[in-house]
Amino acid sequence: MCRVLALAAVLLVLAVNGLLPTAAQHASPPAGPQASPDAATFPLYEAVLAERRGEVAAATTGRLSVYTIEATFTLAPAVPLATGAEATPVMASPAAGGEGTAAVPAATLAGRLDLRYVNGTGAEVSEIYFRLYPNAEGYAEGEIVVSDVTVDGAPSTPERGVDDTVLRVPLSTPVPPGSAANVTMAFTTDVPTQTGDALDLFSFDPAGGTFGLAYWYPLLAGYDPESGWHRDPLSELGDPLFADSALYDVTLTTLPDLVVVASGVELAAETRDGQTRHRFVTGPARDFTVVADDDFASVSRNVGGTTVTSYYNPELAEAGAAVLEYGAQALAVYNDLFGAYPYAELDLVGVTMPNWGGFEFSELVFIENGSYQNLATEYPPGSLEFTVAHEVAHQWWYNLVGSNQQTHAFLDEGLTEYTAIVYVERQHGPAAAERWLDLSVEVGLSFRIAAVGDGVADRPSSAFTDDRDYTNMVYRKGAAGFRALRREIGDAAYLAGLRDYATQTRFAVAVPATLRGAFERASGRDLGPFWRGWFEEARTRASVTVETPLGTPAVGTPTP
After folding, report:
1. Rounded CA gap, 122 and 177, in Å?
2. Has this prediction a pTM greater than 0.90?
3. What angle do CA 125, 127, 130 make, to 5 degrees?
4. In the 8-state DSSP scheme, what is residue 151?
5. Torsion of CA 137, 225, 471, 427, to 10 degrees
6. pLDDT exceeding 70 applies to what percent of the chain?
7. How many CA atoms lie within 13 A of 323 on its CB side?
């Protein structure tokens, strides 16, 4: 995710005082049982590059839950497709039926979910939890209704809680670690008109005629290695989603005129009786997200075997091409630094979401349409490129390596923000990276410290006072901390630590000690005092000294 407010700020030098002795660190999440892939499961991995498919399947088959979803996407009568240049999509608004009349959904998604739940918690499980994100208050007329729940073929009576955003499903027989249960349910999801608030990731944009469909199905709650099932209310700040890696096999029936962009790859599309059935598979993924629009244009490029595609409204072709260029460059840089992106496709999609600059999903990225429209006059210059680089970095620090963004947001966003700055360094040179550090980090952070003092970066999203506090501590101080860590242990150890983290924790859920441990192994040092001073305490002070550029990486040297 890239916050709109995160693009206005200057890296200051922070001096860390009052450091404490080393504390015991958490171990990395244990690997679950492994099984060899067979002919029945291998099609689920078609979204993985052919040369990586066997390796990824062998490492995850039998370890990951499997979603099989069949759903039909139906537009409301008040939402005709824009089939011509002069046509304007029309949306039934909350006021369409008069004051006091319930809002009319823009569309519905109705179908069935068949989940093979694999217990990767390390303990016996007698109940599992689903998140029903469309029931959150911010989604207006959005809603998801679940019925006909079964567990291993027997009817089950689930319980709803946390403002109807959590569904508890008791299991008929406790499931030991590594074993599985089959859970099925019917669901109907109403898609709201774009609300304009922070939860506008699942909605219809009537101006552009675009459906952004994140979190549209019952999604297993994430399992945190430290605290268990994540059932907290949605925070008003930060990413709403926390999920474990799973395999998806999704068949979505739509009108044939819609361009459907989704996580993973499309295995087949068959049109019959005025409807098109699209089948997608993802390989290991943390979500399955869809965007649908009747007049999307697109351009593509191959990067290391991965097809990168930029989708956009036709009138935004120039910016759509620029997004492709930026996404392809970022993917190439990160492939070199952290290990190759293992998926066959990466989609970059223009959507309207005024509260976000961009947003990450598995194998798919949302970019705010306003950035396309303002490309010629963007301020600061390079903002769209930085946003794309940030979101592509999340394919490593979200999709490949997961974390609980509601509990340890800096582990996701702070690391990603600094990774995007490293992209600028590699792509445009150290001086450009320093300028972006000035723009994206130092001003906001220095103003915050001067006004109210320092804060703690590693705390739950709900503990921050407001969006500005969240942005300053999670994005800016988080990025400043990782930059300082790089200087503390050196380029080689910093890069080795991130490669270790990306390799050893892929498809799992990290906690802060997981990343700290990777850096300690790479550097051969106890980083406890440094880590606490930057991320766990408020003991830093602003310095007026501006650090010198990091220097130009030598040709062939793997410097981040």
Report:
1. 5
2. no
3. 120
4. E
5. -120
6. 84
7. 38
